[in-house]
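Task card 7
Instruction: Convert sequence to structure tokens.
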Amino acid sequence: MTPKTPSTLSSASRSSSGRSHEAALRRHARAIFQSALRAADPFSAVERRLRSADFSHFRHIYVLGAGKAGASMARAVERVLGRRITAGLLNVKYGHVSPLRHIELNECGHPVPDAAGVSGAERIAALASQAGNDDLVLCLISGGASALLPLPAGPVILEEKQATTRLLLACGANIHEINAVRKHISRIKGGQLARLAHPAAVRSLLLSDVIGDNLDVIGSGPTAPDASTFRSAWDILAKYDLCERVPASVRARLEQGLRGEIPETPKPADPVFTRVRNHVVGSNRLAVDAAAARARERGFRTLVLSTFIEGETRDVARMHAAIAREICSSGRPLKPPACLISGGETTVTLRGSGLGGRNQEFVLAAAIDIAGLPDVVVLSAGTDGTDGPTDAAGAIADGRTLARRPEAPAFLAANDSYHYFQSLGDLILTGPTHTNVMDVRIVLVGPAPARRA
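Output:
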């Protein structure tokens, strides 16, 4: 065997040192993300809110709602109210369940609604309708509620609503736009659950998964006044050239609404909201703030870019990568060791037939732009533990990722980020987290701080 020369030894040592630095940054990134998850815990948020309220004057208490965090929220309600609960039913995503005694969890489809979701929504509507003046409807809404609470309005049927949802998801429409359309082909969204529950008191506890925490957008606002209209729903279809592509029944209902032949969703002055109160108990901002605090504890100079970030995933990824390159080059806007954090929810325009989600695609696009940079790590993950139709929350990459598998551009072109990161062992796998406050993105530029928290 040929002995290594001093220069070879030096190169090998530098390579080993670089891998060690990036491994440390990866550990930091994962720990920072875990802090964001803990801050988004819906059980604690709901329990705190309920402990401060008085329920003694209500004759019956009905617990209704939908969302991927429904199980955790319902557990908190049972902890506080127990046998005071008259009846309860929540629609949750398949697998997102936990043992309960007084509240039923109905598993159903997400992100595309299914028949189980319709069946559960019918029963939820019936429970709301039987509440009287002396009763309370406690509504629990979290991320995914729009898809998990499907109750199509005639002449639309489930399969046609599914087709419309798929078209909106594929064209790159944002959550505000998707929900505006959903509300106008639904019998329960856009304040219509509050209409069903009237004249009972309604208290909605909301875990926000939308930018800006707009009450009428979270879960498509089943107990909130609706700011959207049939006109705005139609304009969204027109924007994405979908008017002639959606099912004829969807087009017919929206056209009926435009002509004033069917009533609008309830607006702010509607008396159905007289006894309705909506409370946001968890949000992306709280999760991002906790992540930033953890990063500072670990010795990183930290900057929160925004919790309002939306837009095309690849463009957002390249912006984050550009800031990382600037830090490496000039120490602006932060000197290393630096941590950039952002929240919000981007969109992916499908161009290929691969498997992935917006967080995995974000990391793949960023990995291409940080290729070759030493001591840079990018992590992006959904707080609900699922990114797109995959079992991963997101992914993690560094400046050496492309050297390990150079075919990244081809995988990106095919929207196949899942298989790219699966082959490298770089998927973020959390399992169901029972929460959902959108996404958290973390960019670390090292070397990693010596201090370990």
